[in-house]
Amino acid sequence: MKVRVAGVIKEGNRVLTLRYNYGGVDVFALPGGNLEFGEELKEALKREYFEEIQIDIKVGEELLTAEVIREGEQTLHQIFECSINKGVPILNPAETTSLEVCWLEIDRIKEYNLYPNINIYLGEIDLANKYVGVIEQKWF
Fold this sequence. Notes:
- This protein is mainly beta.
- 9% of the residues lie in helices and 49% in strands.
- It has one domain (2-134): Nucleoside Triphosphate Pyrophosphohydrolase (Alpha-Beta Complex).
- The radius of gyration is 14 Å and the shape is globular.
- Keywords: Hydrolase.
Protein backbone atom coordinates (compact mmCIF):
# COMPACT_ATOMS: atom_id res chain seq x y z
CA MET A 1 0.00 0.00 0.00
CA LYS A 2 1.23 3.47 -0.89
CA VAL A 3 0.72 6.40 1.45
CA ARG A 4 0.17 9.78 -0.19
CA VAL A 5 -0.03 13.08 1.67
CA ALA A 6 -1.78 16.14 0.29
CA GLY A 7 -2.66 19.56 1.57
CA VAL A 8 -5.67 21.82 1.39
CA ILE A 9 -4.73 25.49 1.21
CA LYS A 10 -7.75 27.75 1.14
CA GLU A 11 -7.86 31.46 0.39
CA GLY A 12 -11.37 32.75 0.81
CA ASN A 13 -13.61 30.50 -1.25
CA ARG A 14 -10.75 29.01 -3.29
CA VAL A 15 -8.50 25.99 -2.90
CA LEU A 16 -5.00 25.58 -4.36
CA THR A 17 -4.57 22.79 -6.93
CA LEU A 18 -2.24 21.72 -9.73
CA ARG A 19 -3.66 21.14 -13.21
CA TYR A 20 -2.64 18.09 -15.21
CA ASN A 21 -3.97 16.91 -18.56
CA TYR A 22 -4.40 13.22 -19.31
CA GLY A 23 -5.75 12.22 -22.71
CA GLY A 24 -7.26 15.66 -23.24
CA VAL A 25 -8.97 15.72 -19.82
CA ASP A 26 -7.99 18.22 -17.14
CA VAL A 27 -7.36 16.74 -13.69
CA PHE A 28 -6.77 18.98 -10.68
CA ALA A 29 -4.65 17.55 -7.87
CA LEU A 30 -4.19 18.70 -4.34
CA PRO A 31 -0.44 19.28 -4.04
CA GLY A 32 1.40 16.46 -2.32
CA GLY A 33 2.94 13.12 -3.06
CA ASN A 34 4.17 9.76 -1.81
CA LEU A 35 6.30 9.33 1.27
CA GLU A 36 9.96 8.44 1.03
CA PHE A 37 11.16 5.65 3.32
CA GLY A 38 11.40 6.81 6.94
CA GLU A 39 9.74 10.16 6.25
CA GLU A 40 7.07 11.55 8.56
CA LEU A 41 3.75 12.61 7.02
CA LYS A 42 4.01 16.35 7.69
CA GLU A 43 7.66 16.52 6.63
CA ALA A 44 6.84 14.72 3.38
CA LEU A 45 4.09 17.24 2.67
CA LYS A 46 6.39 20.20 3.33
CA ARG A 47 9.00 18.66 1.02
CA GLU A 48 6.48 18.03 -1.77
CA TYR A 49 5.13 21.60 -1.66
CA PHE A 50 8.63 23.06 -1.73
CA GLU A 51 9.79 20.79 -4.55
CA GLU A 52 6.72 21.16 -6.77
CA ILE A 53 5.58 24.76 -6.23
CA GLN A 54 8.44 26.34 -4.30
CA ILE A 55 6.56 27.47 -1.19
CA ASP A 56 7.16 26.92 2.50
CA ILE A 57 4.00 25.73 4.21
CA LYS A 58 2.67 25.27 7.71
CA VAL A 59 0.95 21.91 8.09
CA GLY A 60 -2.04 21.97 10.41
CA GLU A 61 -4.37 19.24 11.56
CA GLU A 62 -5.36 16.23 9.54
CA LEU A 63 -8.63 16.82 7.72
CA LEU A 64 -9.42 13.42 6.34
CA THR A 65 -8.21 9.98 5.37
CA ALA A 66 -9.40 8.22 2.23
CA GLU A 67 -8.49 5.08 0.32
CA VAL A 68 -8.29 4.44 -3.42
CA ILE A 69 -8.20 0.84 -4.64
CA ARG A 70 -7.43 0.23 -8.29
CA GLU A 71 -6.12 -2.72 -10.33
CA GLY A 72 -4.04 -4.37 -7.62
CA GLU A 73 -2.92 -1.05 -6.16
CA GLN A 74 -4.08 0.61 -2.96
CA THR A 75 -3.28 4.16 -1.86
CA LEU A 76 -4.03 5.68 1.51
CA HIS A 77 -4.53 9.44 1.21
CA GLN A 78 -3.80 11.58 4.28
CA ILE A 79 -5.13 15.12 3.72
CA PHE A 80 -3.98 17.99 5.94
CA GLU A 81 -5.05 21.58 6.37
CA CYS A 82 -2.17 23.83 5.31
CA SER A 83 -1.28 27.49 4.94
CA ILE A 84 1.47 29.35 3.11
CA ASN A 85 4.33 30.50 5.37
CA LYS A 86 6.52 31.95 2.66
CA GLY A 87 6.54 32.28 -1.09
CA VAL A 88 4.15 32.38 -4.02
CA PRO A 89 3.14 29.10 -5.72
CA ILE A 90 5.21 28.75 -8.89
CA LEU A 91 5.68 25.46 -10.76
CA ASN A 92 9.06 23.79 -10.67
CA PRO A 93 9.07 21.76 -13.93
CA ALA A 94 12.05 19.72 -12.71
CA GLU A 95 9.85 18.23 -9.97
CA THR A 96 6.33 18.07 -11.43
CA THR A 97 4.56 17.31 -14.68
CA SER A 98 1.66 19.59 -13.80
CA LEU A 99 0.81 22.33 -16.26
CA GLU A 100 -0.16 25.15 -13.93
CA VAL A 101 -1.12 26.25 -10.45
CA CYS A 102 -4.90 26.77 -10.22
CA TRP A 103 -7.10 28.25 -7.53
CA LEU A 104 -10.52 26.58 -7.82
CA GLU A 105 -13.69 27.97 -6.27
CA ILE A 106 -14.85 25.61 -3.55
CA ASP A 107 -18.54 26.13 -4.32
CA ARG A 108 -17.86 24.87 -7.88
CA ILE A 109 -15.40 22.11 -6.93
CA LYS A 110 -17.80 19.29 -7.92
CA GLU A 111 -17.44 20.44 -11.56
CA TYR A 112 -13.76 19.41 -11.63
CA ASN A 113 -11.91 16.09 -11.82
CA LEU A 114 -10.07 16.23 -8.49
CA TYR A 115 -7.29 13.95 -7.27
CA PRO A 116 -7.85 12.58 -4.78
CA ASN A 117 -11.56 12.73 -5.44
CA ILE A 118 -12.63 14.45 -2.21
CA ASN A 119 -14.73 17.15 -3.91
CA ILE A 120 -17.82 16.40 -1.83
CA TYR A 121 -15.93 16.88 1.45
CA LEU A 122 -14.20 20.21 0.79
CA GLY A 123 -17.27 22.29 1.59
CA GLU A 124 -17.89 20.62 4.94
CA ILE A 125 -17.33 22.72 8.03
CA ASP A 126 -16.34 19.98 10.48
CA LEU A 127 -13.84 17.96 8.47
CA ALA A 128 -11.10 17.33 11.03
CA ASN A 129 -9.92 13.74 11.42
CA LYS A 130 -12.65 12.26 9.29
CA TYR A 131 -12.17 8.78 7.81
CA VAL A 132 -14.21 8.60 4.61
CA GLY A 133 -13.24 5.08 3.52
CA VAL A 134 -12.79 4.00 -0.09
CA ILE A 135 -13.49 6.79 -2.57
CA GLU A 136 -14.39 6.47 -6.23
CA GLN A 137 -11.53 7.84 -8.34
CA LYS A 138 -11.85 8.48 -12.09
CA TRP A 139 -8.80 7.65 -14.22
CA PHE A 140 -8.06 9.23 -17.57
